[in-house]
User: Fold these one by one.
Assistant:
Number 1:
Amino acid sequence: MADVKKGDHVEWNTPQGKTEGTVEEVATEDTQIAGQKLKASDDDPRVIVKSAKSGKKAGHKPGSVEKT
């Protein structure tokens, strides 16, 4: 698991290239983002990030985000 926590500045890959943003939360239980269900658990958490460019939130596996 990537060692990220709320408030960390991170980057991740998208089809358009690298995107940067901030960790809003590390989810360890199922939640909703923009009307989409995000499955998460203690054993399989998700990092909820907010894009610096668009302001939109998304959920990622911890290994797919990298601290900057």
Number 2:
Amino acid sequence: MTQLQDAPASQTANLDWSTEDVGNIIALEHVNTCCADQTLVTAFYIMGMGFTRDPYMNVGLNNFWVNIGDEQIHIPTRPSQVLPGHVGVVVPNLAGLAQRLESVKELLAGTKFRYEVKSDHVVAVSPFGNEFHAYEPDPRFGGMRIGMPYVEVRTRRGTSAGIARFYDQIMKAPVQIVEDEQGASAHVRIGTHQTLIFRESDEEIPPYDKHHIAVYIADFTGPYNWLLERKAVTEEVRRHQFRFQDIIDPESGEVMHTLEHEIRGMHHLMYKRPMTNRNADQNMGAYARGGDILTPF
């Protein structure tokens, strides 16, 4: 037994164990942003970022599911959508990522694609304008080797407190308001190693274009009934899920931000669906037998 387990209750009673709490939102599964050209989608997400196209679902030309560890980006073929903010991802190594992104520059010329190598991460912007911040594995990401540890959304000034109240009181998720040099942001804890961040900004928030996120929750009826009473449910329950768009401050009733949430219950058939991930560092010149598959953890 550890020294902490042997310690008398009087010595451990005042310790803060809140980091062990996961709250009601169990997992953030995917971000959905439509794009108009799947050739560009392939060049950026598969060839450049090194992710994996789901080999089993939506393998035609009308949709494109990109596996990133246990998470996904869904990319239906429709007019392009852009999430105002960025998606945080973990990749095995940044050097390989930078080489791949450099290799697709010519293919993506004339689009919004760009990338920049920072001190501890790489910023990559898709041909359609969606931004990703890629990091190498780090203890702050819970042992993740490849995956999506956070999504950061840009919101208007003065919204953090109302957003925090919504996720704390209605969604029953642990929330922390963080003040830093950029201002205030609401950090919503999801499961054991994911975060949904709403960062206040002076930048213009573009009109909402129907992009969405999908999350799994344990208490399904609590948030559903509260939103239904306020006529905020935008898609009724079917196949263990419903949708809403407006993040409402329960204190004032004001809409703080608009972001469609695809809310999935624990009976949803996609919950904990195994994802296939390839090792993008494999190539003919330096092939390693048995190294084709990359596990998220």
Number 3:
Amino acid sequence: MTSSVSPEVGTIVHFEHVNFRIPDHRLAHLYFCVGLGLTRDPTRMVGIENMWVNAGRQQFHLPIGPPSPFRGEVGVVVPDLDAVAQRLTEAKGEFAGTQFSCRREGETLRTTTPWGHPVRIHPFGLLPGRDRQAIPYVELWVAPGTAPGIGAFYRDVIGCPVEFAPANGAPCASVTVGPYHTFRFVERPDGGAVTHRNHVAVYLTRYHATYEALARLGCIMQEDAREQFRFHHMKDPATGRLLYSFEHEMRSIYHPDFGKPLVNRVPLPWLVD
């Protein structure tokens, strides 16, 4: 019998942003705002060193800096997939000489940013969730044999619900990081940690207990300060073996940005010249 209740949410209650370092805000605006139809946040980071782009209740943070490799995929939900495909096609000439790409794959668009970050665009309604714009998941490609231990790390150390189910035939640990939001760890032959400056940010309850649990395992990379800390290492809770590394910005729900309203736009075709 299928339960009619909502899925459980654990210690992490909200996934907020993905951070990619990039060298050019003009091309970033063209890709994320003009192409994907997202909105530059008008209340924060309006200088020339960083750029925050709103996608429903999530964001892309795009500080200026050398781009880093990203083995994985970020999912984005948009209200009109065809409109996004048309705008990206029209902008293609502006991306000449970059790593930009865009092609249809089934009901989605598989794209890469001008700096090679894989982004898959989904039409609203294809994935669970109520937001017409969103970043519903971050997928990370990990080494064969590591997904079960990574899932156990999130479940036993941090306190997140975890589902183990294949993704396109590959072993995968899917971690709930908020309502309708997941981090997916998919095993691939080319998977594994790489040196980079990318990160994700989340808000959590049990903030101090989680910090202490991660500290005992030697996972902390930036100590507790002003309602946030950072960790990167994911270790098997049973053996302590390092399985994967990816930077997480962990914020208390007392952090001043928790629940901050984000301005979004939904372009309407009859208002476009």
